[in-house]
Amino acid sequence: CEDDLSEDRDELLHGISELDITNSDCFPSQLLVHGALAFPLGLDTYHGCVIAAARYGRGRVVVTGHKVLFTVGKLGPFLLNAVRWLDGGRRGKIVVQTELRTLSGLLAVGGIDTSIEPQLTSDASVYCFEPTSDVGVKELQEFVAEGGGLFVGAQAWWWAFKNPGVSPLARFPGNLLLNPFGISITSQSLNPGPFRTPKAGVRTYHFRSTLAEFEVIMGRKRGNVEKGWLAKLGPDGAAFLQIPAEEIPAYMSVHRLLRKLLSRYRLPVATRENPVINDCCRGAMLSLATGLAHSGSDLSLLVPEIEDMYSSLYLRPSESPITVDVNCTNPGTRYCWMSTGLYIPGRQIIEVSLPEDAASADLKIQIGCHTDDLTRASKLFRGPLVINRCCLDKPMKSITCLWGGLLYIIVPQNSKLGSVPITVKGAVRAPYYKLGETSQEEWKRRLQEHPGPWGELATDNLILTVPTANLRALENPEPLLRLWDEVMQAVARLGGEPFPLRLPQRIVADVQISVGWMHAGYPIMCHLESVQELINEKLIRTKGLWGPVHELGRNQQRQEWEFPPHTTEATCNLWCVYVHETVLGIPRSRANIALWPPVREKRVRIYLSKGPNIKNWNAWTALETYLQLQEAFGWEPFIRLFTEYRNQTNLPTDNVDKMNLWVKMFSQQVQKNLAPFFESWAWPIHKEVATSLAYLPEWKENIMKLYLLTQM
C-alpha cells in the first residue's frame, strides 16, 4: 500500500524537507490516518500527524489540522504542490471558499488562479474549504468519488470542548465528511513547530498497518515495531473505535480483531507497584480495550475482573436500580459536573433512565473523575484513559464501563432544568458529604454502608474527591469544610468574583496525573500523596495549603492581565499569599521558603546585576514585582483592579499592550505614578503611557530606588 502511494507522496512533497508551522499562531488538531489509501505527510516526534492525503474513488483529498495552515507563508510550496496534485493535471477550476480568501493570494504567487466562491461549484476541479456543518456532505463525497479534489482545513478540539461527552470522530461535521476517505480529525491538539516529512525507503507510522503488526506480535509473543508506534497505536485505536462502524466491513473487522485479542490474552492491570510500559503491547492493549468498551462492546465476558484503584473483586452492583435526584440547574458560563453519590464498578454495562424532557436537555453522563490523558506517559500506573462520557439523549440508555468510577451528570451552561430523577441499574452508593446537608451521624452511616472506593466532600464552592480509605478517619468533615469555604471565599474575594461561587471548583486525587505535582483545570488534579494536605484540618492550619491554592490561583488567572510565559507561575501565587495570611494566619515568609526575606532580596539583586531584562522576569522574580506593590499599597488595589478587569471589554491581547494597561490602571488605583517603578523592572512602557501618568504624584517610597542605588 505504501509503495503504491509513494508517487503521490513524492509529488506532494517535491522540494519540501519539512512542514514548518512554528509561527502559525495556531494549535492544529492531530489527524488519524486509517484508510488503506490514506497516508501522512507531516509528523511530529510522537508520530502525531498534522497533514495527510488520500485517494478515494477517482478523486483525491488533502487534509490539514487547522484552516490557519492555509495562510502560513512557509507552507507556500506545499500548498502549491497540494493543489496541483488534487487537480490531477486537468488544469481545471480551483475554487476557494470565501472565508479562506487569503489562500488565493498564496496560490496566485505560485501562478495558480482561483475563483472565490461561497460553496462548491459544478465546474470545480478542486475545492478548498473548512467544513463547519453537515450540509452537503454526500455531495462532497460524490464530488471526490467522481474525480474531484478536496483541500480541507479544520480543527476539532474547540468543537470537542463545546460538546463534552460527544465523540468528535463520530459527530464533528468535518469527520462526517472525511471518515470514509480514511482520514479523521481528532480533538487532540499538536504544538506548532516543524513537522518531519516521510522519506523514501523509511517506514512511516500508519494505524492500520501497525495494528496488523500488533496482531502478529501478540500471536507469536515476539517481534517488534518501530519505537513509539505501540504507544501511538493505543490512543489511535481508541479514537478509531469511536467512528460508527455499522455496515462498514473494514471498520467492523477492527472490532472483531480486538474482541478476539481480548478473549485470547489477559488485559494487563497497571498499578504503581506494577506499572505498564506504554510503548509495548501491554500498554497498547489498555488503550484498545478502553476504546472497545466506549464503542459499546460488552467486555464483561472478555476481560477478567480487575483489581486496581478504581475496581475491586469484592465490589458488586446493587441488585435493584438506584434513583437519585440530581440538580440540573447550571447558572455558569460553562458546563459542570453534578455529583450523584453513585459509583459504577468496572466491567459493567449500566442502564440509565431519566424523564423524556431531560433527555432532550443536552445532558451528558460521565463515569469517572480521573480525566487526565496519560497516553504520552512512558509508564502507566493506571489505564491511560479511564473515564467514559456520552450523551443522555434517550430516556433509556445503556453505557459500557471498563474501569469503574464515580458517576456524574454533565449539565450544560445556563441550564434551568432543576431537579431531575436519574435511575441507574448497575451502580453502588459511594460516601458523599455535603456541608450544611449531611449530619455527622449520616456521614458515619454512609462510610459503613456505602461501598464505593472513592468518595466526595462538598460545599457550595468546592468538592474534594479522594479514596474512601482516606475518608474513614474523618469522623466529622464539618470543621474541615468550613475552613475550605473560608479559603474559597478568600480566593473569590481577591479575584473580584461573587461569593458563593456560581459553580464549585473541584480537586481530584489520582494515582498518576498528566503533568506536575498538581495542575489546574476543571478539575484540579493532584497525586494521592496530597490527600492529607486536602482533608487534614490540623495540617492545613499549621503547614498551609500552598500547592492547592496555587492551582486555585491558576484557575483565577485571566488572559487580560496575564503576560505569558512570564507570569504564568507568578500571579497565581498572589492567591497563595493572600489565603495564607488572611485565612490561615501564616505569614508569607513562613508559607514558602522562596518568600523568606533574604531569599527575596537576593533574587532581586541577581536580576538587577545581570541587567534587568524582561526575558529574565519570570516565576518568583515576577512575583516579587507584585509583592512590592502589595506591601506598599495593600490588597485592596488588586481586588478593585481584578474586579474592574472582569467588567471590561475589548482589552488588548498582546503582552506589551496588556502590561502598559496594567501600569495605567494600577497607577490610577493608587493615585501614584508607577511608570518609573515598572521601568526599573524592565517592563516595556510606552512613552505615551509614561507621559499620561506624569500628572500623578511621584511614588517616593519606591523600593526599587533603594535597590538601584545600592546596586551601583
TrEMBL record:
MF (Gene Ontology): transmembrane transporter binding
Pfam families: M60-like_N (PF17291), Peptidase_M60 (PF13402)
Peptidase M60 domain mapped to chain residues: 335-634
PROSITE patterns membership: PEPTIDASE_M60
GO CC term (a single one): plasma membrane
GO terms classed as biological process: positive regulation of protein targeting to membrane
Sequence similarity: Belongs to the TCAF family.
PANTHER family per UniProt: EXPERIMENTAL AUTOIMMUNE PROSTATITIS ANTIGEN 2-RELATED (PTHR15730), TRPM8 CHANNEL-ASSOCIATED FACTOR 1 (PTHR15730:SF1)
Protein name, entry field: Peptidase M60 domain-containing protein
Species this protein is from: Neotoma lepida (Desert woodrat)
